[in-house]
């Protein structure tokens, strides 16, 4: 079984970095400077950003489905290349406790589990052992924010 984890497409977020702080705030967004690492996980690159870098914090609809599992939460993005990982977890997963939420083809949650740091790969494979699981969403367990989508290849 092969899986792919892809960061968000950076294209819609690049123009945000040209906006003023006031313009961002009028849209419910914030420009922030990374002050500690790891703690500013970019959903585009799937990397914790370096101290001193700029990120944009905003609310992102991560599960845009017409059912009770529609979800949104705050995420960070950097002006960075899109990350992609096949049969390996991105560095942003490694130091975190993750909530892995498994969905069927209709976007209904079919299973879920919590993984400790370093256990994400085995958790993903366990969930994908179920043929009814179409995709998985990883969330940072402590803050609840969306981290990445995981698809079967």
TrEMBL record:
Pfam families: DUF1203 (PF06718). It comes from the Bacteria. InterPro entries: DUF1203. This is DUF1203 domain-containing protein. It comes from Sphingomonas anseongensis.
